[in-house]
Amino acid sequence: MKRRFVFLIIALFGVLFSASAREILIMKDGSVLKGEFVEATGEQVKFRTDDDTVRVYEMDKVASLSEERLKNFSTKGYRSQIEQVAECGSFWAFGYDIIFGYQFNSHLQLGAGAGFRFLEDMYGDRSVPLYIDFKVNILKTKVTPFLDFKGGAMMFVDEKIGSSSFYLSPSVGIKKHYSEARALSFSAGWTVARYHEDVCSGCSGDGEDAFFNGGAFSFKVNYQF
Question: Which of 25, 92, 130, 189 is deepest in the core (most CB within 10 A)?
Fold first, then answer.
């Protein structure tokens, strides 16, 4: 009777958690195996271990089968981030940002950021982006894809101090957590800003300034702590 009960429990877990990452098989001798449940009959259990080996165990030697609990990362609290940014397209830029935010739960994070950019093809050679940063972690796991949206203004600091343009930068990426707060992420996206060109750069004398709405591919490396 007990063996049938164990068999039914194992079969139920096989249906419910066939798509989960890992299960835990506990043997009556106290040993614990982690891997993936394959199938169970009335006499035997097939279990794929982490080294991708399929093992067969007698049912009367199995105590139970359970799903491994996944640790939630970045659940709640204040977060600081340092981000390296490269943008290339209608304009080219490279720089670093500092972002301060708050993690509301395992998925949602809102903050504010400021940075410094070395520019080419935009007005002047340096600028300071100021923006609101909104992130969404798709999963609660150690490694998760995420969505990120930055929106604000680009302040130019060279030829016309105080001049500015809008700044929008949505992106998608992958994040790996090392603790509840610490994480490293990589993302790629698209940045839209108003940029400057000298429309008469080959003419003698001063050229004429012109401003255009342009876009560039963006690549970011982010360290959160």
Answer: 25
